[in-house]
Write a structure and sequence with these properties.
Strand order of the largest sheet: 3-4-12-5-11-10
Number of domains: 1
Number of helices: 3
Protein name: Protein containing DUF785
Shape: globular
Number of strands: 13
Distance between the termini: 24 Å
Helix content: 10-25%
Order of helices and strands: EHEEEEEEEEEEEHEH
Largest sheet: 6 strands, mixed, barrel
Structural class: alpha/beta
Pfam family, one: Zn_protease
CATH class: Mainly Beta
Length: 199
């Protein structure tokens, strides 16, 4: 089962800057739950002061052009990180989310003993500790890592986040998420609505 989620409208940088100036400092643990806003997909994220840019687990990453602009398509297989609560009707391996996003920029990652790797960077909305944020995520296969999402210094700086490296899951507020079955059902309903509007 492949679920397709097209791009959502990004919040303007000016609005983000104004919100960030008003946001008080918040202390979080080195691992927290995040929920991707356009899908209600729940993932464990490691908050890493050693990384500047956040990264998100993705596979089958392909760049393409749309209306003269650079876009990227990618998939998130839920079987790689089974964090989405399930009622037992679906297996995580049966669900693959597909995304399309405009490319914010690309970065070249130098790897010791291996060829350099080009990574696409996209803007994504997510919720952590009950608050919605927008930040840049580089797309890379994190299937062999413990955490499918990594939040870097850019997010911490822009959103005034402090990290307690001795503790995890410190967030006092939770973000709304749905079960694996609800996620699949919601997508099926969205597909019907999009088909009807195109006809």
């Amino acid at each position: 089962m492949t679920l397709v989620f097209p791009s959502a409208m990004a919040v303007s940088a000016e609005a983000d800057a104004n919100n960030n100036q008003q946001r008080p400092p918040e202390t979080l643990g080195y691992v927290e739950w995040v929920v991707m806003k356009d899908t209600n997909l729940r993932l464990k994220a490691r908050l890493d002061t050693g990384a500047k840019t956040s990264s998100l687990h993705a596979v089958n990453i392909e760049g393409f052009e749309r209306d003269g602009e650079e876009w990227v398509s990618f998939q998130i297989p839920l079987g790689d990180h089974e964090d989405q609560p399930t009622e037992g009707e679906l297996d995580h391996d049966d669900v693959i989310l597909e995304f399309e996003r405009p490319v914010e920029r690309t970065v070249l990652i130098k790897r010791k003993g291996a060829p350099s790797q080009k990574r696409y960077v996209v803007m994504m909305d997510f919720c952590i500790a009950g608050t919605t944020h927008t930040t840049q995520f580089s797309l890379t296969d994190r299937g062999k890592f413990s955490y499918p999402a990594l939040l870097g210094r850019r997010f911490m700086r822009d959103d005034n986040i402090l990290i307690d490296s001795a503790d995890s899951f410190m967030a006092e507020k939770e973000c709304e998420y749905i079960t694996l079955e609800e996620l699949a059902k919601r997508h099926a309903e969205n597909v019907v609505e999009e088909t009807d509007s195109d006809s």
